Amino acid sequence: MKGAALLERQWRDGGPLATALRPLGALTCALAGWRRRHAHGRPAVLPSIVVGNLPVGGSGKTPLVMAIAAELAVRGWRPAIVSRGYGAHPPHYPYAVQPGDQTRRAGDEPLLLREVAPVYLSPRRLPGIAAAAADGAAVAVLDDGFQHLALHAQVQLLVFSGARPLGNGRCLPAGPLREPLTAMAAADALLVDAAAQDALGAMATPRRFRFRIVPVDLALVRDPAIRQPLSGLQGRAVTALSGIARPERFTAILASLGARVQSRVFADHHPFSAKDLAACPRPIVMTAKDAVKCRAIAGPDDWFLRIRAELEAPFWDWLAQRLP
């Protein structure tokens, strides 16, 4: 097992490497706690909703950001999404993602988010929100940003998912947490799936709202307008291709739909090549985030799983009460 994979496993299950790194983890926690206590964030020119997390890695933020932005649009707001743009190389910041952008310029997640609302890339979130406001947006939804303390957002949401949502409970590099658990108190609410709700149990936290990730159908990578129902996966052998933080969740969804799954796992945000795809038995099923990188190199039997996040009804009334 490679070093990074070994460490990530020990972030979840514990082990000698994670134990040896505890002093560095304690230092990370202390510095992050000091930084939060002394932060003086400023409000943005738009009402802002942060969808963030404490652990590194995938927790379901992207589909939740999409669901929140889409629902705000249905309710008459004009949402924009602001993202740091991991792996993106735009010509300037802030940058408004364009429909024809390639992943090298815009990044993979921003291109996916662009399907539901305008997206602005800005490592410094305040200028990104200002650019969105100048283009007519009425509310900003931030993909990540809980640790961006220069911004004082109207709504701070933390996402937790899976049976070990806090890992081993330690800060980087001894565990997966960016900040100590005390930072959870700065959130207005937690968004949790069923497994995380059970894992957090009676722990004192901000108010929790449940969400779930629902598979929708399969779409052809090179022409997403072509769809097939999920029933087509029943009993079918497929290659699950993924370059995401927690590929086991994607694989588990496909298996739950009746597919016989062979996994091909790459690093998070992997820049796929035609050679990568050619080495995989067909049919391929990948994530929507990976599909935006593979559209130009995909074959006739390469598909991606469309999913959506569903939040319980009380969340929307709660959110509306917090927006001016």
What are its keywords?
324 residues; alpha/beta; Rossmann fold; 2 domains; 13-stranded mixed sheet; 12 helices; globular
What do you see in this structure?
- This protein has helices at residues 3-13, 16-20, 22-37, 61-74, 103-106, 108-113, 125-134, 194-200, 247-256, 274-278, 288-294, 313-322; strands spanning 48-52, 79-83, 95-96, 119-121, 139-143, 155-160, 189-192, 207-220, 223-228, 237-242, 260-265, 284-287, 302-311.
- With 324 residues, the protein is of the alpha/beta class.
- It folds into two domains: 37-212 and 311-322, 3-Layer(aba) Sandwich (Rossmann fold), CATH 3.40.50; 214-308.
- Strands 1, 2, 3, 4, 5, 6, 7, 8, 9, 10, 11, 12 and 13 form a 13-stranded mixed sheet that branches.
- Helix 11 links the parallel strand 12 (284-287) and strand 13.
- The protein starts with a helix and ends with a helix.
- The relative contact order is 0.15.
- The model has no long low-confidence stretch (mean pLDDT 94).
List the helices and strands and how they pair.
Blueprint: H1 3-13, H2 16-20, H3 22-37, E1 48-52, H4 61-74, E2 79-83, E3 95-96, H5 103-106, H6 108-113, E4 119-121, H7 125-134, E5 139-143, E6 155-160, E7 189-192, H8 194-200, E8 207-220, E9 223-228, E10 237-242, H9 247-256, E11 260-265, H10 274-278, E12 284-287, H11 288-294, E13 302-311, H12 313-322
Parallel strand pairs: 1-5, 1-6, 2-4, 2-5, 6-7, 7-8, 10-11, 10-12, 12-13
Antiparallel strand pairs: 3-4, 8-9, 8-13
